[in-house]
Design a protein that fits this description.
It is a single chain. The chain contains 2 helices and 12 strands. The protein is mainly beta. The radius of gyration is 17 Å and the shape is globular.
Amino acid sequence: AFGSRSVYTPQAVINGVAHVNGADRKAMDEAIAQSSDGLPVEVTLSYRGDTVVIETGAGEVPDGEAHVMLVYFNPATTVEITRGRNQGRSFTFWNSVSSYHSAGMWHGKEARFELPVSQVARKGAGGCAVLVQAMQPDGTPGRILGAALLHRPKTGERSYR
């Protein structure tokens, strides 16, 4: 998406429009501050029986196309390095993405998407985020317009924001 020939660790992508070294706290803070115009599209998640309901607010669609994405991530995972210059060290990866898929298209109007809980729950051991993400004219991902974190329901809880 950034036209780079490589990805790196620890790369952090800020709001789909900037990337910085995730170990550089100052660079992270600056990138977050520069994208501080917020997320203009409201995203609400709830459980209705055996269904996860994603509801989005209305807003402007940059370049005319946006996707509603489910992004699954792993719990904190410590990895022992067995080769290379970091051999013998261990690193903990937080919220590393394990998979993702589209729940549908968002066209700038209030929308509702329903998915079976069984489909959502089985993929993300660490959790699942829902993103409304603009797509650039060349088909690559762009700015994130709205987001919400889907938590597994606790007894008695039915809705999450």
